[in-house]
Amino acid sequence: MQTYVVGGAVRDALLGLPVQDRDWVVVGSTPEAMLAQGFRPVGRDFPVFLHPETNEEYALARTERKSGHGYTGFVCHASPDVTLEQDLLRRDLTINAIARDREGRLIDPYGGVRDLEARVFRHVSPAFAEDPLRILRVARFAARFTAFTVAPETLALMRRMVDHGEVDHLVAERVWQEFARGLMEAQPSRMIRSLRECGALARLLPELDRLFGIPQPERYHPEIDTGEHVLQVLDQAAACALPLAVRWACLLHDLGKGDTPAHILPHHYGHEAASARRAREVSIRLKAPAECRELAEMVAREHGILGQVAVLRPQTVVALLERCDVLRRPERFERMLQAAACDHAGRGTAAAERVADWPPLAHWRAAARAVRALDAGAIARSCPDKSRIADAIHAAQVAAVRALDATAATARGAVPPPPASPPFGGKSGPAA
Questions:
Q1: Which of its termini does the chain have fewer beta carbons within 10 Å around, N or C?
Q2: 3-state SS of the chain?
Q3: Taking the model in full, what pTM does it have?
């Protein structure tokens, strides 16, 4: 029995990156022999075991044969006569088909080290085309390894896979899983660009794909193209290390602009309502978690008005706070503000601005604090007409916001402006 470290652990070590987990391939063994040595079986579709001490995964060397559509249509063969080279041949990219033995020697039959040095994603064999999930994996790797490019022959193969309808067989759960992981990488816009370049975006997320080429008023959007704007917003969220729900909301916030009638372009009057509807539809279709779905819908619906807080009436401000359930969900409200700030920064020459310095952030945070600081119980107890308690609380909220606006107006004329908003890394909620 021989064991080798394979895949991402070898790749990342060669790139000088931290190695999080190690996967092993076992050549020349059987399930019975692994069990006899204390390994614990965990694989359902093929023999994978956990080491009795390290809990690292050890998989028996195997080959795969396509037996149907999608990523599940495979027949696996694992036996002692399967070689390491045969096992590496079934892998997706050459940079993931490098092995290292226990003495530290590299086994690289398909040129993975060469492609690491050239910063190229290249498929190992034509068998790449048998698993459409690999298209999403390549796109996700593009978001992580931002200096890499896709080899022309691999891109051509990905396009043929899309044309043959392979991605249409992917189930929503796996698509979401890859999207979610890619959105959390260093430059998630590269994932979207890669999917669009091979045609997969139009199949998996057509609502986003059609935004490319749709113009916006240059006065507000120097980048003009709606799709490019969305990708700039997304990368702003990544640069601020914001969580998945915010990045998903940034990706979907302008989907309604794809519904704008051609005769009113480049304007998009009332696109927020259409964007909220589209964001909800996409999130449901891809089975995004409730946190992501709710925030995406809320950001799409509200992002147009959030930047206007300085000129809104106190009643309008309170209505939005109520609509967004700021009393019970202050953290979600803070996430919405962060997404809106990314939207502001993801605009052509304005993209270099610090997101956390967007002026409406401080205004909305102060308004939320003022409303949440009210003692609703005391207001209710002091209300002589118990049927008007809700009205009394609402009136107190409006008064609190009005007083806040008056104080800010006085301060602007008499003292220096308040300090900048706290960075996004700080604690969210009523104190944020």
A1: N
A2: CEEEEECHHHHHHHCCCCCCCCEEEEECCCHHHHHHCCCEECCCCCCEEECCCCCCEEEECEEEEECCCCCCCEEEEECCCCCHHHHHHCCCEHHHCCEECCCCCEECCCCHHHHHHHCEECECCHHHHHCCHHHHHHHHHHHHCCCCEECHHHHHHHHHHHHCCHHHHCCHHHHHHHHHHHHCCCCCHHHHHHHHHHCHHHHHCHHHHCCCCCECCCCCCCCCEHHHHHHHHHHHHHHCCCCHHHHHHHHHCCHHHHHCCHHHCCCCCCHHHHHHHHHHHHHHHCCCCHHHHHHHHHHHHHHHHHCCHHHCCHHHHHHHHHHCCCCCCHHHHHHHHHHHHHHHHCCHHHHHCCHHHCHHHHHHHHHHHHHHCCCHHHHHHHCCCHHHHHHHHHHHHHHHHHHHHHHHHHHHHHCCCCCCCCCCCCCCCCCC
A3: 0.87
